[in-house]
Amino acid sequence: MDKEPSAASDRQAYDDSPATQSESSSALGWLLLYSVAMFTLPFAAFYSTRYALTHYLHVDGFANTCGSVVAAVLVVNVIIFLYAVRGYEDAKDDDNNHDPTTEEGDERKDEAKKSK
């Protein structure tokens, strides 16, 4: 009789594959990039808008502060949107590239149901 490998060992082999490790490091790289952007770009937007309103448009006081805050909030929302789109695209790519170990496991489940 042929002994079929267990689903756990199939999953472990998939997790240890170089392609999976590359995907993990890529995901961490993107997380780092978005984290740095979330920290730096709103400050840059706030102070550059504040500078532009003060020096070019001669706007001071509450309007200057309000405009600068709105610019920073818009930048934060754009970063969050881009992060969500990136996650959606990655999930869609994962759905298109099926994991062969889970397909084998599904086939085994189907065979077990048919034999009952």
List the helices and strands and how they pair.
Layout: H1 7-15, H2 18-55, H3 62-96, H4 100-115
Walkthrough of the structure:
The chain crosses the membrane at residues 27-49, 61-85. There is one protein chain. The protein has helices spanning 7-15, 18-55, 62-96, 100-115. The chain has 116 residues and is mainly alpha-helical. It is built from 4 helices and no strands.
Short description:
84% of the residues lie in helices and 0% in strands. With 116 residues, it is mostly helical.
Structural class assignment: mainly alpha
Largest sheet: none
What is the percentage of strand-forming residues? Answer: under 5%
Distance between the termini: 21 Å
Tell me the helix content.
over 70%
- The sequence of SSEs as H and E is HHHH
| SS summary, helix count | 4
Q: What best-fitting shape do the alpha-carbon axes yield? A: elongated
Low-pLDDT parts are none
Radius of gyration computed on alpha carbons? 25 Å
Number-wise, the strands total 0
InterPro entries: Vma21
Protein name: Vacuolar ATPase assembly integral membrane protein VMA21 homolog
GO cellular component, one term: endoplasmic reticulum membrane
Transmembrane segments: 27-49, 61-85
Features:
116 residues; mainly alpha; 84% helix; transmembrane
